[in-house]
Task: structure prediction
Amino acid sequence: MEVAVPSSISSSAASLERIVPAAAAAATDLGDCSAFKVYKRRWFLLAVVCLLNCSNAMLWLTFAPVADKTAEHFHTSLDMVNWLSLVYLLISVPFGLLGIWILDTIGLKCAVILCAWLNMVGSIIRIFSVISIFSLGSMNFAYLLVGQCLSAMAQPLICFAPTKLAALWFPEHQRATANMIASMSNPLGLLIANLLSPALVKEEKDIPLMLGVYAGPAVLACVLATVGVHEKVPPTPPSASASHSNSPTFCGGLKMLMRNKPYLILAFCFGAGIALFTCYTALLEQILCSNGYSNSFAGLSGALFTVCGLIGAFLLGLYVDRTKAFTESTKICLCLTSLACIAFAVVSQFRNQVYVLATVSSLFGFFGFATYPIAMELAVECSYPVGEGTSSGLIFVTGQVLGVIVMVLAQNLTTKMKEAPFSTCTVVEGGAQDWTISTLMMAGLCSFIACFYVIAFHTNYRRISTETSNACSLNKTDDDVAVTAQQ
Result:
């Protein structure tokens, strides 16, 4: 198979093939550039994945911004309400491994459609808890748990999908951006939940309205996925790495990852980062209400955290797509994230610091969220040719396991406040909690992983190296082809 070049340089290309046959062989090893093609429907697939990711995140964080009102409505404790968030972490661990297998073995289409249905059914079952005909009396809270469990099963499928979608449907100069857009739709869902839940639930009697509103996006996403997703791969590949199915089997990929030191360091550090962000979003309202901050301000802080994170991820995604500086970008952002986490741990223990807290939350999100999509792309780069679902999914599963540990530890490190005259927490059982030790623990963990990652992580970009051995791609000109062959 020969690389197609203009007639004006065909003779020079032929002579180059005779002089450097090894370079010519490398140039054609991954396929003919004429076979590389992108399709407009990749943007529809991206939109469906974004909507699913956003809806699933909204379902996950539905109750966290109004935890006290939820506990009051269902006559239960805050610890039980926290389980509505914790169940996502617990269930997504075993189902995370299944999700990895589905993505890398059966394909993206099956993963997206299955996720859509689990997400929709889970959102509908939650509504049963407030419908009298389905009432279980004091056990209505069980409907919420069942609905959260089904939505939690869907989470790994859609959270692992962005790297797979970017690799299969987008050319190399758009991969980081596509991954960023799909990945950041998850924190967008957290943003919506942080703003929408307090806005809808002024009193505990507003809980039914909130559950109905959150079911809408889940139903829409299911309809779009079922009707519009028809293919698991495009008819022709968009890049050299997508043109060959050279990924190992599921078990073979896991074995390769377990022997890959850079990947293991990356998985631990960013898994711990995911755990910290999970705790922050789930416990923010409880941390702030003890010191006199309202649910609305907690929702605003969470919103600033997410909005600034989306901005940071967008800017960093564009930068990395041009420079491929994955490692340097993640190291700098992770260090700045740890500083913001320390600042939050200190400032959140003082009253009347709304402007400082808002600024700290914004910086925490700006630097922290920006690293997530880049870390997922970096996982693929340092583990290639392991499947994208496996490499990114295992980091997410690690984050969920560590999230359970950190969240349970944070709750157990709290102490009941003897006097809390300024507390805005309204709960049926217990009372205001002192979160000082818990937040300092989270800040210490964030600082440790930042230092460890900066010192210990070093890797080569395997996928990029493989693609640069190919003489042509969608974003190279014919002159680039000649220069690559000459080199």
About this structure: Residues 40-239+248-463 form a domain with the Growth Hormone; Chain: A; fold (CATH 1.20.1250.20). The first helix runs from residue 10 to 19. The longest strand covers residues 415-416.
